[in-house]
Design a protein that fits this description.
The chain is mainly α and 167 residues long. The chain has one domain. The protein contains 7 helices and 2 strands, in the order ββααααααα. Strands 1-2 form a two-stranded antiparallel sheet. Strand 1 and strand 2 form a beta hairpin. The radius of gyration is 16 Å and the shape is globular.
Length: 167
């Protein structure tokens, strides 16, 4: 599948596949370019520079630290449950003091990024709907943060099992 990015460049979905360190470094470079195009897209849509920058920053963390590094996934082939695990487990356990307000910023960026991928015809309307639904489950994530902060004894294993890793 080929999509057009920033009106000129072509984007092959397979450009984000990787199996070794060399390919991963190339994918990381492609992600940087894709994120810059996303940032420009947000501004072209009338978003203030500061807000576009904040969303691109959050999308960068999600893509490069979570999807590529932790999950080893193609960033333009999202699997069901990938956002849910990010917000309901990975973000919480990889943040010093997880707060719902901060997580909401990441989820807003994730929604905007996947909407951008949809506009490029990289993901289907059905995939976008699933991802938006996962990102919109704010009550669940607030409960996950609260229950994480209240873990005692050997409770972590049970807590983690309540939001299984899809990747």
């Amino acid at each position: 599948m080929t999509a057009v990015v920033a009106g000129e460049k072509s984007l092959e979905i397979t450009d984000f596949d990787f199996s070794d360190m060399e390919e991963e470094l190339r994918v990381d470079e492609r992600c940087c370019a894709l994120l810059f195009d996303f940032y420009q897209h947000l501004q072209a849509g009338g978003m203030a520079v500061e807000q576009a920058s904040a969303l691109a920053y959050c999308a960068d963390y999600y893509l490069r630290d979570y999807l590529i590094d932790a999950c080893r996934e193609n960033v333009v082939r999202p699997s069901p449950g990938i956002v849910r695990y990010f917000a309901g487990n990975w973000f919480i356990t990889h943040t010093l003091d997880p707060e719902m307000k901060v997580l909401e910023q990441y989820l807003q960026a994730i929604n905007a990024f996947y909407a951008y991928l949809h506009s490029l015809h990289c993901i289907s309307a059905e995939e976008l709907s699933i991802l938006e639904k996962e990102a919109g489950d704010l009550g669940y994530y607030a409960g996950r943060i609260e229950s994480f902060l209240n873990i005692t004894g050997d409770g972590y294993t049970t807590w983690a099992a309540d939001c299984p890793k899809p990747c």
